[in-house]
Amino acid sequence: MSDILCRLEGAVAVVTLNRPQKYNALTADMLDELVSTLKQLDGQPEVRAIVLLGSPKAFSAGADTGTLASASATELWRSGFSEKWDRVGEIEKPLIAAVSGYALGGGLELALLCDIIIADETAQFGLPESHIGIIPGAGGTQRLVRAVGKSLAMEMLLGGRRINAPEAIQAGLVSRIVAAEELEQQALALAGQVAKAAPLAAVMIKKAVAASYEMPLSAGVAYERVLSALIADSEDRTAGLEAFKNKQRPEFKGR
C-alpha cells in the first residue's frame, strides 16, 4: 500500500501520511510521493483546499533519514533531502494540517509549512534534534521562532521540550483544539469553509502572508496593495461583489 493516500471530498482533498507502523517517519521516497500528490492537486481547479492528516498516534514523528545517517557532509548536502520540505511550501492552495499524536522533528517542520494547524487533545509538538547530536534542516529553527516566539522556540530546540495541544494554542502554533474522534471531521469542515474563498484571493493571501516573513512592514503593505489592485481585474472579484450586492452565494471560477 502507498505511503501517501489521497481522496476528494467535494472541493477538499484529503492527503494522508500512511506509514503508521513507523509513526509516519518521512523517507525521501515518501516525501517525493507527497510532493507529487500535492502538486497534482495544486493543478486541479476543482480542488480549493487540502487537508493533511497523519495517523492517530502520529502526524509524523520526524524524518527517517535511512542511509543519510551515515552520509558525509557533501553527500548530505547534495542529497536534496531537506529541500523536499521546501517543495511543500511552494504549494499555492491552502494547506491545513490536522495533527494527532506526535509532530516531532521533520513532522513538525512539515506542519509548519501548512497555512493552518489544528490539533486534537493528544497532539505533542517538538524539535528534539539537538539531543541526538544534530539540528533541524528543513526550516525548523526559522519557522518555529516565527510561530511561537524566541524563548519558547529555544526551549524546544535546546531543551528538547515538547509542548502539548493547550500549550500550542496558547503559543499561537495551532488555531484550535478538537476532540480526537472529531479531528478529521473538524478539519474537513474548516477546509470546506476555506474552499468557499475565491481561488485567486486564496493564492494571493498566501503569497502576501508568506512575504510578511521576508519583508519589512512597509514593503509588505506595498506588496499587499499591488495584489489587491491586481485582483480587481479578475472575474471572481466581479462575481463576488455582484453576489454580495444581491445577497447570494458567489460562484467563483478562479480567474
Automatic annotation (TrEMBL):
InterPro entries: Enoyl-CoA_hyd/isom_CS (IPR018376), Enoyl-CoA_hydra/iso (IPR001753). The keyword Lyase applies. Keywords: Lyase. It holds the Pfam family ECH_1. This is Enoyl-CoA hydratase/isomerase family protein. Belongs to the enoyl-CoA hydratase/isomerase family. PANTHER family: ENOYL-COA HYDRATASE, MITOCHONDRIAL, ENOYL-COA HYDRATASE-RELATED. CDD domains: crotonase-like. It comes from the Bacteria. Transmembrane segments: none annotated. It comes from Cedecea davisae.
